[in-house]
Design brief:
- This protein is mostly beta strands and 341 residues long.
- The protein has one domain.
- It has two helices and 24 strands.
- Strands 1, 2, 3, 4, 5, 6, 7, 8, 9, 12, 13 and 14 form a twelve-stranded antiparallel sheet that branches. Strands 15, 16, 17, 18, 19, 20, 21, 22, 23 and 24 form a ten-stranded antiparallel sheet that branches. It has a two-stranded antiparallel sheet with strand order 10-11.
- Strand 8 and strand 9 form a beta hairpin.
Length: 341
């Protein structure tokens, strides 16, 4: 029990010690240089399969120029991670909340260098709400858990990616992670910390969440502005007011008693294929863009009406729209109709 409590209160650390298969855990490091390109995602992780020969550690690397991610597998015994903080080692590569050091080389990929992180902006962890998942983090039967290590931070250092040296110094970064048995059936995720006004960061996700005998459209959103974190989530009592999908964009509006947030997530643009966990290994294919765009409008609600807090467009957005999105929207509509009846 003590180990479970400590693990839940340390979402950035490794949760896989003594976990039975199937189990996966992965960390997502987004690196955007000052000029914006090439935006890069580095994803270290591990997959534990029912058959030991199918288990493997891995490092994925994706830039906004790639159509296919670089996927480098490692024997699981080369994976080492601490349970009390973010400190992961895979072979000669190390990942912490202070820096990443990469030394990857195979027939198709060469990545070497160190990028340090300065002025980390963590998502608050409290006993009643340990991280971005709120009290759901305490539920022991969730299909997938999510954590945000840093909403925004400054970068310093270089990576040699194949034949190009990318200097990330002065750029911005973001760190999150996922762990559990499997990814959701379908989801939407968007993240950007490149708005016209400095210091704004958005992370937002919406997914079909299996729960007891059914499922619901669970969402978690954080908007960082002037060092204040605005939270909208299923567990905060916020409600989805609009969810409409077209060929060009997804319109998503949520509100609580004090604030209303409107997002227009633009579809299209270059995407690359990441690998995700499935029952038989890292075989699921997920389209992700590192060059997405999201329009954000945040308003305060009071007796006089609405007053504007933020109105801006985020660039270099990480973006995924995966699975059966009409089904996801249909579950939300059914939920709304059930409340009305």
């Amino acid at each position: 029990m003590i180990r479970y409590i400590k693990s839940t209160l340390t979402p950035e650390a490794y949760h896989g010690h003594n976990k039975k298969a199937p189990f996966f855990e992965g960390w997502y490091f987004k690196l955007v240089p000052p000029g914006g390109a090439p935006a890069t995602a580095i994803i270290p992780g591990i997959f534990k399969a029912a058959s030991p020969e199918s288990s493997q550690a891995f490092i994925q690397a994706l830039t906004d120029r790639d159509r296919e991610c670089r996927y480098i597998p490692f024997p699981p015994e080369q994976f080492r991670a601490r349970a009390d903080c973010l400190d992961v080692q895979i072979g000669a590569n190390r990942f912490t909340n202070k820096a990443i050091t990469l030394n990857v080389q195979d027939e198709q990929t060469f990545i070497r260098g160190t990028v340090e992180f300065e002025q980390i902006t963590s998502w608050p962890v409290r006993l009643h709400s340990p991280g971005i998942m709120g009290w759901y983090a305490w539920a022991p039967f969730m299909q997938c858990y999510h954590g945000v290590v840093s909403l925004d931070h400054r970068l310093k250092g270089r990576l040699r990616i194949d034949g190009e040296t990318v200097d990330f110094s002065g750029g911005r970064g973001y760190i999150e992670k996922d762990w559990g048995r499997a990814f959701p059936e379908s989801w939407v995720w968007v993240q950007s910390n490149h708005f016209p006004e400095a210091g704004i960061s958005l992370t937002a996700s919406l997914a079909i969440i299996p729960w007891i005998r059914g499922a619901f459209p669970g969402f978690i959103i954080g908007v960082l502005h002037q060092e204040r974190l605005y939270r909208f989530a299923t567990y905060t009592g916020a409600k989805i007011e609009q969810l409409e999908l077209s060929e060009q964009h997804l319109d998503w509006v949520v509100a609580d008693k004090r604030h209303r947030l409107s997002l227009r997530i633009h579809r299209g643009g270059p995407t690359g294929l990441l690998r995700g966990p499935a029952s038989d290994g890292m075989t699921r294919r997920i389209e992700e863009s590192l060059a997405g765009k999201v329009e954000l409008r945040l308003c305060r609600i009071d007796r006089r009406g609405e007053s504007l807090i933020i109105d801006g467009t985020g660039k270099y957005a990480g973006m995924e729209m995966a699975g059966d999105l009409p089904k996801l929207i249909g579950i939300w509509k059914a939920q709304v109709n059930s409340r009305k009846s």
